[in-house]
Design brief:
Largest sheet of chain C: 5 strands, parallel
Oligomer: heterotrimer
Distance between the termini of chain C: 32 Å
Number of helices of chain A: 7
Largest sheet of chain A: 6 strands, mixed
Strand order of the largest sheet of chain C: 7-6-5-8-9
Structural class of chain C: alpha/beta
Radius of gyration of chain A: 17 Å
Number of strands of chain A: 10
Largest interface: B-C, 37 and 39 residues
Radius of gyration of chain C: 21 Å
Shape of chain A: globular
Helix content of chain C: 25-40%
Shape of chain C: globular
Structural class of chain A: alpha/beta
Number of strands of chain C: 16
Chain lengths: 224, 332, 379
């Protein structure tokens, strides 16, 4: 489903290329839960940003369903790949419902009008993460674990075959972390989604993941 | 917010604005009820003096509140607003430059095309400042930095304007003094024809931003992932705010309060994040605030006029402070 | 901003400040003593003591507080009171911070005593302009405030300036500390044109030219009264509107303001002649319009030069009858490159010329062939 082909990732600052990681080759398929590991600064976030298209690759390419990721329009990509990041979402009267409903953005008209089908999808996404009772709560009223689940529900509402989570366990306590991975594993198994998760908690996620990708200094990438 | 609830609130506010509009036409320096309707004085006062003032209140109130809402959502910061970010000062400065330069080169017919030129400069000034703010916002992720830059910019522009006024001659200064003290009462019916359509169109265009604005409330990364073209959204917001602030400032002078406080009050009062709801509420509340201020001016002093800027701030700020304390949640 | 406000307020208050003054009779016994006799001016007094003259400037409060005292002597410093400026006359070096004062000094043939003025931009007078060009007259107030260091360095024998009647804010404390003799005059608060013109007597005292001032003023007064008598027999009095609005506010001078008295003397009917409040009243366009829409004549329109210009500010100005009839007259016939009219120079000293202009505007038949000195018709 996703194929990294001689990929070089990094940043471009004023025409100067700063390479972070070179010659990455890997293939991830539907139904897999990929754990992305590595020390801080080694390039985990850079890799995820490159996969989601918010950073350009320096060389090589990422293929999504056999097509270069840059060849997709932002609208098309929004229906294939969704993200969950660490930054806290809230304020501005945003409720759980609003955030999950935003997952429907790629499918609705410019006035943001939801139809019955959209609402049905939102409700079912909430149900899958047992968030229905919280749907009218403001985001500011939630615990960190609940927030994280809301963001995953948003990704479900977005109905993408690929979900990418950057450090989703960062603010969670031990039990919440386990609950989160259980949910992710279930999604992979029941809906054949490809989920890529970056985390420091190697031991914690080992029982859940189907494949681990470890990035190390010196451009060495270990896939188990 | 459920649709039925939204329609109910919107209707209530519309009725409120309608009632206030009628009140605004009724109150003034002279008691219109004592004037014979056949007397030409009646129609002059009603149609040449009070009607344009009322329409200006509607346009300025709704337009500035729209700008404030768009800027606050785009920067995800309730402190953003056309005045705080220096957009109004930019418009004001460019008008000062226009009046000084044009009168000093003495282009014949300047006064004939004067308002057109002043408006163009006003819009250019607003556009210029919004562009700078956006350039800064690309360099830094910190909202505080962006606001501080806006604040500094506003100071620089204000000081530059002071400098221009200081060195310019009485002849050109007079144009600017008369302009800069202008407020909702200075517009005429033909001015309304001039600013009304572009203001209404700009506000209508803001409804096309509902979906991207809703998505960008999460944050820019999520919005981008949801297929929103952030760059295009930013440009759209710049164009709409520049047009609205430019047109309104050109005719009413810089108005400080409405742009920042109406969106805050609206979000505190109507607990909805959806921009369709907030746009409608802000436009109606903005109009209501301006009308109330104008009526207030007329009632407490039926002879002399009070600057609308002062009155909106005096009656509006306590309301916002009250709402801030009453509300348990942060709005931004 | 400061400058904007200064200009605005000078424009607004220059002539319109109005006070409830005690009747002339109460002051007369004091004044009768000296050769200088004041008939109109109320904001200063002159007393002639043995061998010296005492000038007192009055504040703008009703109680006629003396704001400063000048003891003028020719030889031998007299003993009078402690809180006073003792000045040996005639003074040789004067800093004149208003064009009105400068032109009054010139009337008294004291052009060479003017060492400094405020800002040449305000002047039409060619002599002053030339002398500033040649560097023989300094400018002390190019900006909104007086330049303290330059002024102190100049050490004038006398600094002439004006204020709003508040001794604490009218003059910079540093100038007071430098012990410069400063005369903060409230001549612009005088209510009648002759009262203001009579201030030439105040300035004359510093040069020991009382007799000259008397004769100059007597001529002006006589001419003024002759003109004023012309309109006695007129039955129908044309109505007169003044000023334009600033922003939304139309500052309307009261019925006892300088301009209201001038209009009355010219045989005009002023809309607010019965308003006896001091100062001017801020009114809305609507209020002014409903009262004055049928005005016959409209004068003193800021410093506008054409009807088109007036309309460009607000086309509703065109609703007034005077506009439709083409009877708009502004007092800026002669103005310099910066837009300042000579009305603020000689117009104050020669109210008879201003009155003649106004009479000609209101009753053209009374002064056939009159050529305007200050006014012009806006086209």
């Amino acid at each position: 489903m996703i194929k990294l082909d001689a990929l070089e990732i990094g940043y471009k600052i004023k025409n100067r290329e700063i390479s972070v990681f070179k010659s990455m080759n890997a293939e991830f398929n539907a139904g897999e839960l990929i754990g992305l590991m590595g020390d801080n600064g080694v390039g985990k976030s850079t890799l995820l940003k490159t996969i989601t298209g918010s950073l350009k690759s320096l060389s090589g390419q990422i293929l999504l369903n056999g097509k270069n990721i840059n060849a997709y329009s932002s609208g098309e990509l929004a229906q294939l790949l969704s993200i969950v990041i660490t930054e806290k979402i809230g304020g501005f009267n945003l409720t759980v419902w609003d955030v999950v409903a935003s997952g429907r953005t790629p499918y609705i008209n410019i006035f943001g009008k939801l139809n019955v089908e959209d609402e049905h999808i939102i409700v079912s996404s909430l149900e899958q993460l047992s968030l229905v009772s919280l749907k009218d709560k403001f985001m500011d009223e939630l615990s960190d674990g609940q927030r994280q689940k809301v963001m995953i529900a948003k990704s479900l509402a977005q109905q993408t075959p690929v979900i990418i989570l950057d450090e989703p366990t960062a603010f969670l306590d031990y039990n919440s972390k386990h609950r989160l991975f259980k949910v992710l594993k279930e999604l992979c198994e029941t809906q054949q989604k490809l989920i890529i998760v970056s985390s420091h908690d190697l031991d914690l996620m080992r029982p859940y993941i189907t494949k681990s990708v470890t990035l190390q200094e010196g451009n060495s990438m270990e896939i188990l | 917010m459920a649709s039925s609830k939204f329609i109910f609130y919107a209707l209530c506010l519309t009725v409120l604005v309608a009632v206030l509009s009628v009140c605004d036409l009724c109150f003034g320096g002279i008691n219109l009820f004592l004037v014979n309707t056949q007397d030409p004085l009646f129609s002059t006062i009603l149609f040449d003096i009070r009607l344009p003032k009322m329409l200006t209140c509607l346009i300025a109130g709704s337009g500035l509140a729209t700008c404030g809402l768009l800027l606050q959502s785009l920067f995800r910061n309730p402190l953003a607003g056309p005045y705080v970010l220096g957009v109004s000062s930019g418009a004001s400065l460019f008008v000062a430059i226009a009046t000084m330069v044009l009168t000093s080169v003495n282009i014949s017919g300047m006064f004939f095309v004067g308002k057109g030129i002043i408006t163009v400069f006003s819009i250019a000034g607003a556009f210029f400042v919004t562009l700078i703010i956006l350039a800064v916002s690309k360099k830094t992720k910190s909202n505080v930095t962006i606001l501080l830059v806006g604040l500094m910019l506003s100071q620089i522009l204000g000081a530059t304007q002071g400098l221009i006024e200081y060195i310019s001659s009485a002849d050109s200064l007079k144009t600017f003094v008369i302009w800069s003290m202008g407020s909702v009462g200075s517009t005429t019916l033909s001015d309304i024809w001039f600013i009304g359509p572009p203001a209404v169109i700009s506000m209508a265009l803001s409804f096309t931003l509902i979906k991207p604005m809703n998505a960008v409330l999460l944050n820019e990364q999520y919005a981008q992932n949801l297929g929103i073209n952030i760059h295009r959204l930013r440009i759209s917001v710049i164009i709409i705010t520049s047009l609205l602030v430019g047109f309104i400032t050109a005719f009413c002078g810089p108005i400080a309060f409405v742009g920042i406080s109406v969106p805050i009050a609206s979000r505190l009062f109507f607990k909805t994040a959806h921009h369709l709801h907030q746009l409608v509420f802000c436009m109606l509340i903005g109009s209501a605030v301006m009308l109330t201020a104008d009526i207030f001016c007329q009632v407490i002093s039926n002879q002399f006029t009070l600057p609308i800027n002062t009155v909106t701030t005096l009656i509006g700020s306590p309301v916002v402070i009250y709402l801030l304390f009453k509300s348990k949640l942060s709005i931004g | 901003m400061t400058r904007k406000i200064t200009i605005l307020f000078l424009g607004l208050f220059f002539f319109y400040g109005c006070r409830n003054e005690p009747k002339q009779a109460e002051k007369d016994p004091e004044l009768a003593a000296g050769p200088i006799k004041l008939s109109y001016a109320k904001r200063f007094t002159v007393k002639h003591e043995d061998g010296f003259t005492v000038l007192e400037l009055l504040g703008n409060k009703n109680d006629n507080v003396v704001t400063s005292t000048f003891v003028l002597y020719k030889t031998g410093k007299p003993r009078y009171k402690k809180e006073a400026y003792y000045i040996r006359i005639p003074v040789k070096k004067v800093a004149s911070m208003s064009s009105v004062y400068s032109l009054m000094l010139m009337e008294l043939n004291e052009t060479n005593s003017i060492a400094a003025i405020d800002n040449v931009d305000y002047y039409n007078n060619t002599t002053i302009r030339q002398k500033v060009n040649e560097g023989r007259i300094m400018e002390l107030s190019k900006g909104p405030n007086i330049e303290i260091e330059k002024t102190v360095a100049l050490k004038p024998d006398l600094l002439l300036t004006f204020g709003m009647g508040n001794p604490n804010t009218d003059i910079d404390k540093k100038l007071v500390q430098a012990q410069l003799p400063i005369a903060v005059s409230l001549d612009h608060l005088e209510e009648t044109p002759l009262a203001r013109a009579e201030w030439i007597k105040f300035f004359a005292c510093f040069f020991d030219k009382q007799a000259l001032a008397d004769s100059l003023f007597n001529i002006t007064e006589k001419k003024y009264n002759v003109l004023k008598a012309l309109i006695k027999s007129e039955e129908h009095k044309p109505t007169v509107l003044t000023e334009i609005k600033y922003g939304d506010t139309w500052y309307v001078p009261s019925g006892k303001s300088y301009i209201a008295n001038l209009i009355a003397d010219a045989g005009g009917s002023y809309f607010w002649k019965d308003d006896m409040k001091p100062g001017s009243t801020p009114l809305s366009f609507e209020t002014v319009y409903s009262k004055a829409k049928e005005c016959d004549v409209w004068i003193n329109l800021y410093n506008l030069n054409s009807k088109k210009e007036l309309l460009s500010y607000d086309e509703r100005y065109g609703l007034f009858k005077a506009f439709k009839d083409g009877k708009l007259y502004n007092n800026n016939k002669i103005q310099n490159a910066k837009g300042y009219s000579n009305y603020w120079e000689t117009g104050i000293i020669r109210p008879d010329e201003v009155l003649a202009d106004l009479i000609f505007i209101l009753y053209p038949k009374l002064l056939p062939g009159h050529a305007f000195s200050y006014y012009k018709k806006l086209e």
